[in-house]
Amino acid sequence: MSETTATAANDRGFWGEANYPGIFGWIFSTDHKRIGLLYFWSVLTFFCVGVLLGLLLRLELFAPGETIMSAQTYNATFTLHGVIMIFLFIIPGIPAAFGNLIMPIQIGARDVSFPKLNLFSWWLYITGATLAVTSLFTGGGPPDTGWTFYVPFSAQTSTNVSLAAVAVFILGFSSILTGLNFVTTIHRLRTKGMTWMRIPLFTWSLYATAWIQILATPVIGITVALLFAERVLGTGLFDPAQGGDPIMFQHLFWIYSHPAVYIMVLPGMGVISDIIPVFSRKPAFGYKAIVVSSMAIAFAGSLVWAHHMYTSGISDMAVMIFSFLTFIVAIPSAIKVFNWLATLYEGSILLDPPLLYALSFILLFTIGGLSGLVLGAAAADVHVHDTYFVVGHFHFVMFGGTGMAFFAAMHYWLPKIYGRMYDKTVATVAWGVIIVGFLILYISMKVVGMMGMPRRYYDYVPEFTGLNQLATVGSWILAIGLILMFVNIIHGLFKGDPVEANPWGGASLEWQIPSPPPTENFGEEDPVVTHGPYDFKKAGIL
Amino acid sequence: MSEEHAHIVPYKTFAIVWIALLFLTGTTIAVAQYDLGAMNVWVALGIATVKAGLVVAVFMHMKHESILFKLSLLTALTMLAIFIGFTFLDVLYR
Amino acid sequence: MSGHVHKDYIGAKFGMWLFLFTEILLFGGLFILYAVYLTRYPQEFISAGSELNVWFGGGNTMVLLTSSLFVAISITALRRGAKTLCLRLLGGTIACAVIFMVNKYFEWSAKISHGIYPGSEHLKELQPGEMVFFNIYYLTTGLHGLHVVIGAVLIAWSMFLIKSDKVNADDFVILENAGLYWHLVDLIWIFVFPLYYLILH
């Protein structure tokens, strides 16, 4: 341990070894760490764009009537906010960025199974992102359908939905290739002694996620392809005038997009499951239960898609069965929450920034998850469907869940990758500001939704003014917190103090190699694993 | 490396399967000349499934692959069945 | 291993199978729609489906099954060292792909010349269920045809690699994976044929 710590300070690991000069050493690299960083910075860029759009939306809603933008611009802005946040940030966020950076190291591999395919996935991501951005400025202007692209409107609007559909198809392809790469890697490249029950929970969550990516994403592929065909070729499979059924579009869309919710949140749960034992100095409570619940979420999450469609005119039978199944999905999620709390219980807690973000995940995700049960119950959903309650709900689970997990992963693993530490005090302050802003913003949304404010409008009745202004102020506080956090962490990564191999005292493999890791992660000899990922005693941490 | 290579399937096996596939194609066309009512679909799908099974097992070597491959295929087909089946919870009772 | 990077054959094949699953679910979306609309419009599907020619569909089934046989045998041939035979068989596969597409061309042309194609005036005069049938018929066979073309390109690429001995009796996973893709094209057709050409008579 101590030798690696000493060399870590001046050795730049994989940073010093590129196959091509300059930027080509990145965009043509097949090293999983370089691809992970490509994803990280691309994803982060789109996150910032998405946040800016969100702030504009909130600004428009500061007062009733037209405040800063017209109704049409507002429609395009919330569509873009949704498309960017869903397809360009949350879905690839943790798996493609941190999965690529950390997963191969965690199982003792030198790279993923298909490194070239991995690079190709990133190029597809960039191509899809470029097309999505291009769709704003070409054709009939920016799509105004919302990120769900529901027919019949999406088939008829003159805005550039066709190009956006192509972009989504390509982004889906990218996601599929990452998924099949990860499943193959986890099956084939585990090092000696890395049995299934010694795999860190983060990697387990990626494994579950990757299966959803493989089996659900093709369905959105065919759905947007059919939408494209309906617009371009006139094959109206969803067009009632040609005998089609618009509700079938919603079925196909949610057959992917509900499991996609778990593509978004499962890796986040994995991050939390990895962080909590380390900062409690206790083995993960119920390791096997967390593993099983990840797989159970992946499976059960594929059985509940129609709970997005209670008010669309589907049969009462379907509403009842899908409502029942929705409650079943809550069980594995709750298993995880209880196991995290049990891990924390009587641990020797280190209140470092990664744990703070992890704790806020538990709080916010639980609130969001419970409001999800309100929506999952068909009788209650009918009343709050398409109100701001729904908007508040999914921001709690997506931003409060996956977003916080992304921040936790940044604070936990980026010092390992960059070999430098950020300022922990500033990180803690930023965390506090973010939480305050978050709660003001999204609790206001939930309340105003309960009062009956519908979503997707640029205007509202004067009664809702107070809560909307509160939400907008919350968005400003949140933005300040985010800026503080990003400036601090980016400054730390480039100018911070050098960091040792194992700054947090983790027992999994990524903490046993130098910071930053060398090009092929491990030296001449492949590592041999002799204990579980949270066995701090055998790892010599305790 | 040698243990990774499944054994070489002889030409004859492939030829027999091919003849069986052509025979089943003939059968399904012949059966389609009779109106079996609602059973039309199921008979046709049944024969198609047998054909697909032959292609997967022999032409695609699934017979010789490990349990991992078989379970994965089963998982994929199960999910497809669920997607179709659960959609009918809506369609049949609307 | 003589300094070579270890080639993970099982991993490469497993990755290909995972990709085939995504293809199955891609077509799965169309099969879901087919099943739903067949349930909703049984009579219209029968009247529209009876306009498809069983002999085009049946002939193409034979062609694809035979091409699958060629691919399967070609791997055995390559591993037994019969490189020329292997290349001839793969050439036969591509010939089958061409025959399939030519057949498809005539089949589609016949339909189109009768005014049956997406968005046509004639189509709009038909029953809604019949319109759905022809739309989904064109989309499914079109997407399948696209896969035939991609599969043929993969086979051609494997032939090129076999010719230059980059794919050989000891290192043939590329041919095996191209073959798996080709069999998938066949598999999809095994279901498309009875569903669209047969059960509606």
Question: Can you walk through the features of this model?
Answer:
The complex is a heterotrimer of chains A (542), B (94) and C (201). Chain A is an all-alpha fold and 542 residues long. Chain A is built from 16 helices and two strands. The model of chain A is unreliable at 1-10 (pLDDT under 50). Chain B has 94 residues and is mainly alpha-helical. Chain B has helices spanning 11-32, 39-59, 67-91. The longest helix of chain B has 25 residues, at 67-91. The mean pLDDT of chain B is 90. Helix content of chain C is 82%, strand content 0%. By secondary structure, chain C is mainly α. Chain C has helices spanning 9-40, 42-49, 54-79, 83-113, 121-125, 128-163, 173-198. Classes of the chains: A mainly alpha (542), B mainly alpha (94), C mainly alpha (201). Chains in contact: A-B, A-C, B-C. Chain A binds chain C through residues 113-114, 117, 176, 179-181, 183-184, 187-189, 214-219, 221-223, 225-226, 229, 233-237, 240-245, 248, 251-252, 255, and chain C through 8, 10-12, 14-15, 18-19, 21-30, 32-33, 36-37, 40-41, 44, 118-119, 124, 127-132, 135-136, 138-139, 143.
Helix/strand layout:
The complex is a heterotrimer of chains A (542), B (94) and C (201).
Chain A: H1 2-8, H2 24-27, H3 32-60, H4 71-106, H5 115-137, H6 153-156, H7 161-188, H8 201-232, H9 246-280, H10 287-300, H11 316-344, H12 353-376, H13 378-384, H14 388-418, E1 420-421, H15 424-450, H16 465-495, E2 497-498
Antiparallel strand pairs in A: 1-2
Chain B: H1 11-32, H2 39-59, H3 67-91
Chain C: H1 9-40, H2 42-49, H3 54-79, H4 83-113, H5 121-125, H6 128-163, H7 173-198
